[in-house]
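B., you asked whether I could sanity-check this one before it goes into the benchmark set. Here's the sequence:
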Amino acid sequence: MFIEKQLSDNTINDINYLIENTKLKPTDRVHLTHNGFQSNNIVNIFSNELLKKMLPDNLYGLVFHIHYIHYYSGGYQKRHDHRDTEKFGFILYLNDADGETVFEEPVNRSIKPEKGKILLFDSSIPHYANESLLNKKILVGAISKIIKKY
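And here's what the prediction gave me:
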């Protein structure tokens, strides 16, 4: 599965307001974000109403983690997948930026970060983020029935 859709500016503005007004703590586990900030799991700050605006009806109730990532100038994400811990993943771009997200086989696509664009994808697809010079801000998350502590 690979779905690309656009969320409304109002929804993205609501998410950005929520992020800006929450004291986020950096993750304490090893991650693949370089030269950037990655939060701990912040799924609990999202209302069901906001999750419904972000994700398809059949998926929003299965979200078990969401992380905010702010790539500073020169930030990037190493190649990885989530096949061992998740069923689906998502990336939501909170601003226009550079540093395309690259999806490998079977998708073979480079996605330009554009405010409001959300990508939903099978967690087995390898992906990475090229270096960003424009302070890219995103949400990443997992949709799964597999229970794993984050």
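One thing to flag: Residues 9-20 form the longest helix (12 residues). Otherwise nothing jumped out at me.
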